[in-house]
Design brief:
- The protein is of the alpha/beta class.
- The chain has helices spanning 18-28, 61-67, 69-74, 99-110, 128-133, 148-161, 178-183, 204-211, 246-269; strands spanning 5-13, 32-41, 46-54, 78-83, 88-94, 115-122, 138-140, 166-169, 188-193, 215-222, 232-239, 273-276, 279-282.
- It folds into 2 domains: 5-83, ACT domain (Alpha-Beta Plaits), CATH 3.30.70.260; 88-282, Rossmann fold (3-Layer(aba) Sandwich), CATH 3.40.50.170.
- It is globular and about 60 Å long.
- The longest helix is centred in the C-terminal third of the chain and has 24 residues, at 246-269.
- The two termini are 30 Å apart.
- Strand 2 and strand 3 (46-54) form a beta hairpin.
Length: 284
């Protein structure tokens, strides 16, 4: 039987002895550290750590968690242990732009992204066939101003029934209510162009073209009640020039959105992202 591998993540008030304490518990359990990264934020007085380790054959995640109870209490840690080989149950939300959806499903199907896509949900029916082509259930949840609360209740019920651990807004063009944002806190990722707060509303790339922008980019972040202002996970920018028309900017923008969103999801499901107030600590 192969030795199971686990990923430990923690954050706590910064103090002396944290690394020693974690290492000590792992030694007593005959575990072997494979990879370790840590960061102390002096401004917030918080310490963050991620450790990948191999445990003796047959050891469960629950058993490993139990060995850290006293240490976590002693240092007031938010400590979690994850199975390294486990795929994250994911629901993808989309509206009428399918580039990020298609990219995520391909990466999941090819094994380069450790997510188990439990379903695709949309306020439009455009991508039912695309989801079916990947053998993924499609859920059409139309939304209007009149039924928004009911539609969000259906969405939350779907998340619960499918055992979803992560919700990805792959160009889902609906603003989530504050209540739904809070219900999905720390487990919902959104993608948008990086022009914000400039060029809001319709056709942002056309607006950018009129202003002669020289950079096109995208930002992936956790969803919060503060619209498009959640803790940032990943960003990328590509240089553009005067020869590129609005349609070319849209094309470039969609490419970078796909890349940034897939990177953010990968970082999240590999447990490399720890929340630090309104910011994130990302262990590469």
């Amino acid at each position: 039987m192969a030795a199971p591998q686990f990923i430990l993540t923690l954050s706590c008030p910064d103090t002396v002895g944290i690394v020693h304490a974690i290492s000590g518990v792992l030694v007593t359990q005959s575990c072997n550290i494979i990879d370790s990264a840590q960061f102390g934020d002096p401004g917030a007085n918080r310490f963050f750590m991620r450790v990948t380790f191999a445990a003796p054959a047959g050891v469960s995640r629950a058993a490993m968690e139990s060995t850290f109870v006293a240490t976590a209490k002693r240092f007031a840690m938010d400590l979690r242990i994850h199975e390294a080989a486990a795929k994250t149950r994911t629901l993808i939300l989309v509206s009428r732009f399918g580039h990020c959806l298609n990219d995520l499903m391909f990466r999941a199907g090819s094994g380069t992204l450790a997510i188990d896509v439990a379903g695709v949900a949309s306020n439009h029916g455009d991508f039912a066939d695309l989801a079916a082509g990947h053998h993924i259930p499609f859920h059409h949840l139309p939304v209007t101003a009149a039924n928004k609360a009911e539609q969000e209740a259906q969405l939350l019920a779907l998340i619960d029934s499918l055992g979803v651990e992560l919700v990805v807004l792959a160009r889902y063009m609906q603003v989530l209510s504050n209540d739904l944002c809070r219900a999905l806190s720390g487990r919902a990722i959104n993608i948008h162009h990086s022009f914000l707060p400039s060029f809001k509303g319709a056709k942002p790339y056309h607006q950018a073209y009129e202003r002669g922008v020289k950079l096109v980019g995208a930002t992936a972040h956790y969803v919060t009640p503060d619209l498009d202002e959640g803790p940032i996970i990943e960003q990328e920018a590509i240089r553009v020039d005067h020869a590129m028309g609005p349609d070319h900017l849209v094309e470039v923008g969609r490419d970078v959105e796909c890349v940034v969103l897939s990177r953010a999801v990968k970082l999240h499901v590999e447990h490399r992202v720890l929340l630090n107030g309104s910011r994130t600590v990302v262990f590469r």
